[in-house]
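Quick check before the chapter quiz. The format below is the same one you will see on the exam, so make sure you can read both the input and the output lines.
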Amino acid sequence: MSDRLPPIPDPQLTPAQRAAAQELASGPRGKLAGPFVPLLRSPELMARVQKVGEFLRFESGLPDRIKELAILIVARHWDQPYEWSFHLPLALKAGVAREAAEAIAEGRRPRMLDADEAAAWSLLTELLDLRQVGDEAYAAALDAFGEAGVVELIAFGGYYGFLAMVMNAARTPTEPAEIPLKR
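Here is the expected output.
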């Protein structure tokens, strides 16, 4: 399958696209890649969306291990290979167990999760699969992360779900992952 929205050659960038790309590249991401390549077609949207992602990834009060676990859960839900392959090494480095990543790649609940990981898993999978969250999952997430953390965890689901939809529609190419998503 071919990339439907590949990188725009530099000479073809509009001033708004150029400014949005430079703003993103000057931040913690360091370069325009992944979902931001297709999003650059709407530079104002990209500029606003990337700020949400910048907050979630680099400033959220959630532990990095939980952030990356959340991203893997969402990437699996949407069968999104770019997000999966990009965030898998970050997740493993942040402390997500390899066994957990393998289980998620296979579409199943990991057997051994710490209490906060289990709370994140339940909240996100219920929300993604059932479109609602039961009292038990909500209470566990609230206990593990507090109200702000619960809201931020939900935001991870929405934000990375949005990016997954953009890249799935655009057919954004990716490199193979060490632990591939199983279809």
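If your answer matched, good. The mean pLDDT is 97.
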